[in-house]
Amino acid sequence: MEIIKIPKKEGIIDRTTGKVLNRKLRVAAYARVSTMGAEQLNSYESQKKYYYEKINNNPEWQYVDIYADEGISGTTDYRRASFMKMIQDALSGKIDLILTKSISRFGRNTMDVLKNVRLLRDNNVAVLFEENNLNTLDTKTSEMLLTTLSAVAQQESENISEHVKLGLQMKMNRGELIGFNRCYGYRNENDKLEIIDEEAEVVKFIFDKYCDGHGANGIAKMLTEQGIKSPKGNNKWNDSTIRGILRNEKYKGDVLQGKTYTADPLSHKRYKNLGEADQFYVSEHHEPIISPEKFDMVQEILKERCGARANGRRIGNVGRKFAFSSRIRCGFCGNCFTRRTVVGKDREKIPSWSCISFAKNGKENCTESKTIREEMIKEAFVDSYKLLSSNTNFETEEFLNLMQDTMNENSRQDELEKFKKEFVDIKSKKSKLIDLMVEDKISEDD
C-alpha cells in the first residue's frame, strides 16, 4: 500500500471551480471610532490614510474600498452602516481580504464578531486583525483566540460603560445638567437654561387654558388655528405634545434627571425609568415660566382626568374630550363610561356611551351594563337640570330617590316586555298544536 500526500494549494481557492485564483487579492479595510471628539477624528483620518497607502503599495493587492464608521459604538453591528455594507459586498464576492486594526475596531460584542467572522470565512473571505496578528482563515488558532480576544474587547466596553455611568451619576448628584434635549420655551446657554420669551408665552397660554377647563385636544386645535409652530416646527399641534408640556417639571424651574436608563451597553436600548435606576430631582434649578402653585394645580387636574394606575393600565377616561367624558359612572361596576360610535340599521353612525369594562374587556366583565345613546343622555341631563333649576325646594336626596324609582320602573318594564314575548311564543305554540290535532296528526293525549 502506497500513501501519497497531496499538498494544499497556495493562494485563494475558488469554491465553485476548485482552482487557485490567478489574480490580485481584492483587499478592503475597516476603520471605526466611537466618538466625534477631535482626538478620535484625527485617529479616524489616520486609519483611513494608513490603509489606503498600505493596500495600494502592495503589488499583489487590488484596492477595493475603505469602509469607515465615525462616532458609532462597536457593540451593535446593525447600527454601523459602512460595516454592514462591507459585509454585504464581501458576501457578494467583491472582497477577498479585510484589514482592520484590532478586534475591538471590528466589534465589541463577542456574538456579533464571531457571527460575522464565521459568515465571511464560510464565503472564503479572510479578516486580518493586525494588532493581534490573527488571520481568520487560519483555522488552527483563529477560532479559540478570536473568541478569547472578542470577550476581552466586550468586557472592556462594558467596563467603560460602567465608568461613564458612574461619572454621569456623580454629575447629576452635583446638580449639573446632563443630556439636555431641547425644551420648548428654553435655550441652553453654557449649561444654563434661559427663557425664550415668545415660546414662553405659548407655554403660559397652554397652562392657563388647561386650568380654565380646556382639554389637551382642544388646546392643540387652538394653537394650530392660531398658526403657531409646534416644538418640532410643524404647523399642527398634537394633544400628546400638550400633555408633555403640562407634565414637564422644567416649566416650574426644577429638573428631574434620570427619566430613562440604558438596559445594557450592548443593545443600547433605553427605557423609561420606573424605579430601575437612581433619579435626581433638582429644585429651583433655573428661572421658571410657570409658578409652582399653578404647575401643581395642573398636575392635580391631570390626575383627576386621566384616572389612577392599576395593574399597569389606566382606569377611566384619558381626558375630557367630550361633554360627558369622565362624568358618567357605571352603576354596576363603578368604572367610567367611554364614548363609542355604533352603526345603526341604515349604516348611520350613532354616538353612544358604554361602561369601559364592558367595552374594552367584554360583556362578562360587566354583565348588566347596556350601551346608551348619547342623545338619550343629553335629554335626560336637560330634563334633570330643568327639574332642579325650576324647583328651589327640590332636595338632592329626593331627586336621587326619584331616579332610583325610575330605574326600578324601567327594570319592571323590561320584565313585563319579557313576559309579553314569552306569552306570544306560548300562544303561537298552542295554535300550532291545535292545527296538528285538527289534521289528526296528533291525538289529544299527545
Trace the largest sheet across and list its strands. Answer: 2-1-3-4-5
Count of runs of 4 or more consecutive helical residues = 12
**For the record, what CATH class of the largest domain applies?**
Alpha Beta
Q: Quickly give the CATH architecture of the largest domain.
A: 3-Layer(aba) Sandwich
Poorly predicted regions are: 308-318
Find the CATH topology of the largest domain: Rossmann fold
Question: What average pLDDT do the residues reach?
Answer: 78
What percentage of the residues does DSSP assign to strands (E)?
15-25%
C-alpha termini separation? 104 Å
* CATH evolutionary superfamily of the largest domain: Resolvase, N-terminal catalytic domain
Helix proportion range: 40-55%
Defining traits:
alpha+beta; 16 strands; 5-stranded mixed sheet; 3-stranded antiparallel sheet; 12 helices; 446 residues; flat; Rossmann fold; Hect, E3 ligase catalytic domain fold
Overview of the molecule:
The chain is of the alpha+beta class and 446 residues long. It has four domains: 25-159, Rossmann fold (3-Layer(aba) Sandwich), CATH 3.40.50; 186-306, Hect, E3 ligase catalytic domain fold, CATH 3.90.1750; 315-394, no CATH class; 397-446. Helix content is 43%, strand content 15%. It has helices spanning 38-56, 81-91, 103-106, 110-122, 142-173, 197-211, 216-225, 239-247, 292-306, 356-361, 374-390, 396-438; strands at residues 25-33, 61-70, 97-100, 126-129, 134-135, 186-189, 192-195, 255-257, 260-262, 270-272, 280-282, 309-310, 313-314, 337-343, 349-355, 372-373. α4 (110-122) runs antiparallel to α5 and α7 (216-225) packs across α8 (239-247). Mean pLDDT is 78; it is low at 308-318.
